[in-house]
């Protein structure tokens, strides 16, 4: 592009200090994959996302979880003015997205203008009730897209920073890491089970030879999101403390360093209940996760086990003076390179034969030719005080053998809904690789998926 063109703008008044996501509750219903949270119904929880300087947050976290890694600090005395940064106020300058502050400072964001536009258009096109798409370069932590949409609440901001959505079956990625690393499982190791599409009970944990006819390898079980397989393997091979330690290593129960405050993702693995532990390993209970964290988890595995600090600002300058330059900084190691690559390759089954196959293949042909995509779905239906909600997750890294882009998508719809989380993510990946192959800035748009019939109730990806 030769002249600056503004991206979609919206009022920033509601952005400062975060937002209240009142209509998305924490209560989890018993239907859906996975999961249920026990207890009486709870009212929606107000969540705020206070903004804070990126460097200060990173310094405190790296000191705690990544000894030896140097925290990035702004050059000189200049600090990133977090409260003033707003991607919606940035303009496209060539292939960059630049926001010019009132004092004349030019802040270049890490966002790819084309990917940002594609992600925003996808969410708007499907009129999702609430939706987020986060794309990140796993090698540097640079955010490539950070898009959000609330069809009836356009004033809501920072949806990617909220951890209200249950992690659901995306948590199986954490369990798979523990099973490979601590349980000694290989991707081709097989288990035979039955049932568990909607729930896991103590009965499912006991082998029943006459009924256990669904046999899958660990890789196939991850791709199909086999609840009983993961519950039974965890029950047999892991202890609650081990799974909790792996979850903590992926930075659950910690505040992530970022330009703005990020609500901590939660993973509380039950220690006093065999069934509770097995259900949590399958993703049925005890976990909540922010979309930004979902992207970082996937990026950590995609980057040979090293999770990089998320970055939104690439550089800042005023006149001829350089005020700030981004330096990629490691946060922590989530897995060894061997384990990370093993899990990443197992995740390919999700798109090739598993729960996301129909989103990545059409008529037997891949929608993104020549690119293997490692992914994981997660879904949950709930009905909180009579209001239907369906959480649909999808995380992905591509190309699977040498990932250069990671996407996390969360779509929350009501009883009348149109699309699942895998679709906006797939459309963004299609745009990224189409432009990479053709070299054209304006790639051909991805054909829209068939919408669900009006009034259709949400179905669970991971139980199909």
What would you say this structure looks like, in words?
The chain is an alpha+beta fold and 464 residues long. The protein has a single domain, classed as 2-Layer Sandwich (Beta-Lactamase), CATH 3.30.450.330. The protein is built from 13 helices and 19 strands. The strands form six sheets. It has a six-stranded antiparallel sheet with strand order 1-2-3-4-12-13, with no helix packed on it. It has a five-stranded antiparallel sheet with strand order 6-5-19-18-17.
Give the amount of beta strand, in percent.
Answer: 15-25%
**CATH topology (fold) name:** Beta-Lactamase
Rounded to the nearest angstrom, the distance between the terminal CA atoms is 44 Å
Count of folded domains: 1
Class by helix and strand content? alpha+beta
The Rg value, from CA coordinates, equals 21 Å
Unreliable stretches, pLDDT < 50, 5 or more residues?
1-75, 441-448, 450-464
Helix content range of the residues, please? 25-40%
Largest sheet: 6 strands, antiparallel
| Mean pLDDT over all positions | 83
Question: What is the number of strand segments?
Answer: 19
From the spread of the alpha carbons, the general shape counts as: globular
CATH class: Alpha Beta
* Strand ordering within the main sheet: 1-2-3-4-12-13
| Total number of helices | 13
From the coordinates shown, what is the CATH architecture? 2-Layer Sandwich
């Amino acid at each position: 592009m030769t002249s600056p063109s503004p991206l979609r703008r919206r009022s920033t008044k509601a952005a400062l200090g975060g937002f209240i996501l009142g209509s998305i509750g924490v209560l989890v219903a018993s239907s859906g994959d996975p999961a249920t949270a026990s207890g009486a119904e709870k009212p929606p929880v107000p969540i705020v996302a206070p903004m804070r300087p990126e460097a200060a947050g990173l310094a405190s976290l790296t000191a705690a979880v990544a000894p030896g890694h140097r925290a990035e600090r702004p050059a000189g005395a200049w600090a990133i003015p977090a409260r003033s940064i707003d991607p919606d106020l940035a303009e496209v300058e060539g292939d960059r997205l630049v926001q010019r502050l009132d004092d004349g400072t030019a802040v270049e964001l890490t966002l790819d203008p084309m990917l940002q536009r594609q992600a925003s258009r996808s969410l708007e096109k499907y009129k999702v009730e609430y939706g987020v798409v986060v794309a990140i370069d796993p090698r540097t932590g640079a955010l490539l897209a950070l898009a959000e949409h609330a069809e009836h609440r356009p004033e809501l901001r920072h949806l990617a920073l909220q951890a209200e959505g249950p992690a659901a079956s995306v948590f199986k990625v954490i369990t798979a890491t523990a099973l490979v690393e601590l349980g000694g499982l290989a991707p081709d190791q097989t288990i035979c089970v039955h049932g568990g599409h909607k729930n896991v009970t103590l009965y499912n944990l006991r082998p029943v030879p006459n009924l256990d006819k669904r046999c899958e390898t660990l890789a196939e079980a991850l791709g199909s999101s086999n609840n009983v397989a993961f519950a039974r393997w965890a029950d047999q091979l892991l202890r609650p403390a081990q799974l909790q330690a792996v979850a903590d290593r992926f930075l659950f129960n910690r505040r992530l360093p970022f330009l703005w405050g990020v609500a901590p993702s939660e993973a509380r693995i039950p220690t006093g209940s065999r069934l509770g532990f097995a259900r949590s390993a399958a993703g049925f209970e005890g976990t909540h996760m922010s979309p930004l964290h979902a992207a970082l988890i996937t990026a950590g595995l995609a980057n040979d086990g090293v999770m990089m600090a998320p970055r939104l600002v690439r550089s800042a300058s005023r006149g001829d003076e350089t005020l700030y330059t981004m330096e990629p900084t490691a946060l922590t190691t989530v897995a060894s390179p061997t384990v990370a690559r093993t899990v990443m390759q197992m995740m390919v089954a999700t798109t090739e034969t598993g729960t996301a196959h129909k989103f990545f293949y059409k008529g037997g042909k891949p929608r993104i030719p020549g690119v293997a995509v490692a992914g994981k779905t997660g879904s949950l239906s709930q009905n909180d005080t009579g209001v239907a909600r369906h959480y649909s997750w999808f995380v992905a890294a591509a190309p699977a053998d040498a990932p250069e882009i990671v996407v996390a998508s969360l779509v929350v719809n009501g009883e009348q809904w149109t699309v699942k989380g895998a679709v906006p993510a797939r459309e963004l990946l299609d745009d990224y690789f189409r432009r990479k192959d053709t070299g054209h800035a304006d790639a051909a748009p991805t054909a829209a998926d068939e919408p669900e019939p009006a009034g259709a109730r949400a179905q669970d990806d991971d139980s199909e």
